[in-house]
Design goal:
Elements (H helix, E strand, L loop, with lengths): L4 H11 L5 E5 L2 E6 L2 E7 L2 E5 L5 H5 L4 E6 L2 E9 L6 H16 L12
Pfam families: TfoX_N (PF04993)
Protein name: TfoX/Sxy family protein
Length: about 110
């Protein structure tokens, strides 16, 4: 799991006061609100949830591109170039991802097997 630790700290600093948790998963560090992923930081960059309706607006922004998973486009998610993520830009993306994720129903996780 090689991701930018400094960026991880910047994201945590912004999201932790909202009750967002971070968990190592999906080959990186995933940020969760009510057990729904809102962002994931991994070796390729930061992916954020923008929702299916937000794709056109998101892709029109500098440094954003369609997230591909196993070669397939992931609707509602974009991958961001870390070089574009100065503080105001990062804040904007994280606010957007939080708002979209907050509209989702909380996930009901299955209890872990012992």
């Amino acid at each position: 799991m090689a991701y930018d630790e400094v960026l991880a700290d910047r994201i945590t600093e912004r999201l932790a006061p909202r009750g967002v948790t971070a968990k190592k998963m999906f080959a990186g560090l995933t940020f969760l609100w009510q057990d729904n992923a809102l962002a994931n930081l991994y070796d390729e960059g930061l992916m954020v949830r923008v929702g299916p309706d937000g794709m056109d607006d998101a892709l029109a922004r500098p440094g954003a591109r369609q997230l591909l998973f196993r070669g397939k486009p992931q609707n509602g998610w974009v991958l961001l170039d870390e070089e574009t993520l100065d503080d105001p830009v990062l804040d904007d993306w994280l606010d957007w991802a939080f708002e979209v994720t907050a509209e989702l129903p909380p996930k009901k996780l299955k209890p872990k097997k012992k």
